[in-house]
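Why do we care about 3D structure at all? Because function follows from shape, and shape follows, mostly, from sequence. That is the central idea of this module. The next example makes it concrete: a single protein chain, its amino acid sequence, and then its structure expressed as tokens.
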Amino acid sequence: MKVLTSSASRLLTGLFMFVLLFTAACGSKEGTVESVNMLYGTTSKTWKTDKETTAAGDKIKQTDAMDDQRVTFFANGQYNMSSGAQTMNGKYTFDQGAKTITMMPDGAGTSNTFTVVTLTDDKLTLKGTDGTELHLEDE
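And the structure:
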């Protein structure tokens, strides 16, 4: 067995670290929260359910109704949620600094606040207070 010299070992370690950092930098944008216009595009953007995970990260089996869910965010602070024949309208506020979105359905007395885990041009991940995450993708 050949023993690596100290300089060869350092070179190999440095090369490994470079590859590791390069791979991480070129990876997904999961965990990135970009500007609010990524949420609604120019005037509106529709997001569809991709998957839902538990607080432990386990995938929740989607029913047909869950798979059919859509939410459209409008630039004027309005939103529309639909699932099959059911629809819900309301208002939302996005707090870039706190990375939260608060949604208030029309006629409801309470709002729902979600942590925005990821917001890019094509991915939106919202985390509920119980730790479940809803992963959405641009339609």
